[in-house]
Each structure stands twice: as C-alpha cells, then as structure tokens.
Amino acid sequence: MKSVDALLCWLIHLAGAHTVGFSHCNKFNNRIYNFKSHTKVDPTLNDLYASQLKSMCPRNVDPRIAIDMDPTTPRAFDNAYFKNLQKGMGLFTSDQVLFMDPRSKPAVEAFASNSKTFHANFVAAITKLGRVGIKNAQNGNIRSDCSII
Ligand code: HEM
C-alpha cells in the first residue's frame, strides 16, 4: 500500500463503486469479441466469466441490455468487486488493470481482505469527488457524449 500514492488510492476506491449497478454490453464487448487481432477474448478475463458475459451479451445484442457490474453480489455495496478482480472477474479493462498493475495490486489485495477499510475510504473518496465543483458553459465543457469534446 505504501507505494500507492493518495490519488491512485482514491481512484481505486472510486472504481469500487462498480460493486453495484449495471453496464451496457457495448461498454466492454471489445474484451469478449475480437480482442486485438490475434486473440478473441481478453486473456486477463476469467474463462468462465468470459463465457457468461458472452451469453448475456451476444454479438449484435440490443443496445439497451445492461448487466450487473458485480457478478457475485450485485445488490450489496461490499468489497466483492476487489475479490472479483483477484479472480479475473473485473468487467472493464479499467477494473482489471487495477489488479494487473503492480502499483495498484497491493491496494486491491488490501481492500479485498478488509471490507471496513474499503467502506471508510470510499466515503472519503466520493466526498472529495463531490467537492470537485460543477462546471457550466462559462468555465467548462458540457458533453452529451463523454468521449467527444
Ligand atoms: C476512478 C473511478 C472509476 C473508473 C476508472 C471508472 C471507469 C468506468 C468505465 C471505463 C466504464 C465503462 C463505460 C465507458 O467506457 O464509457 C464505467 C462504467 C460505469 N461506471 Fe464507472 N468508473 C469509476 C467510478 C465510478 C463511480 C464512482 C460510479 C458510481 C457512483 C461508477 C458507475 C458506473 C456505471 C453505472 C457504469 C455503467 C455505464 C453504462 O453502462 O452505461 N463508476 N466506469
């Protein structure tokens, strides 16, 4: 944990919000279909989880379909998200990389083994995020699609 700086630590905690809620299939289907050119499934994905994702999100799925982001305890705000990362069951690349990268892996392991630490730190991180301030047309850029300025 010592090597993880404060900013990275907040980021990891915030990503823990993916322990509840839904995601549309198009947010992650690049990992289960035609991943890069040489292999079809992201090799960091757990095999069983990858096949479950494929059955819930077949090719050309209705774009309105959304699935649980936490496959084990989707209605509980708990540290299962971090335990899932240890098993290759992070839904997004940005989730799984937290366990693959040696800079964030120790933090993932700490939160996976101690739910109280996760809860306390999540409260601090999301409160900070809430104080970042709201941008409007005068001082910022309001996007209808987050990926396009
Ligand atoms: C550093 C923290 C976080 C990271 C890196 C992160 C990353 C992501 C990524 C990459 C996606 C896929 C969507 C896309 O690519 O457009 C996503 C989806 C989502 N995230 Fe996060 N997230 C974070 C924090 C949060 C928080 C704090 C919440 C809720 C309080 C949240 C709720 C969601 C939801 C509901 C979706 C699904 C959206 C959809 O399918 O339309 N995330 N997140």
UniProtKB/TrEMBL annotation:
Its cofactor is Ca(2+); heme b. Transmembrane segments: none annotated. Its EC number is 1.11.1.7. This is peroxidase. Residues 1-149 form the Plant heme peroxidase family profile domain. InterPro entries: Haem_peroxidase, Haem_peroxidase_sf, Peroxidase_pln. Heme b binds at residue 18. Binds 2 calcium ions per subunit. Residues 1-17 form the signal peptide. PANTHER family: PEROXIDASE, PTHR31517. Ca(2+) binds at residues 19, 70, 73, 78. Removal of H(2)O(2), oxidation of toxic reductants, biosynthesis and degradation of lignin, suberization, auxin catabolism, response to environmental stresses such as wounding, pathogen attack and oxidative stress. These functions might be dependent on each isozyme/isoform in each plant tissue. Disulfide bonds join 25-57. It catalyses: 2 a phenolic donor + H2O2 = 2 a phenolic radical donor + 2 H2O. GO terms for molecular function: heme binding; lactoperoxidase activity; metal ion binding. One of its GO terms (biological process) is response to oxidative stress. Belongs to the peroxidase family.
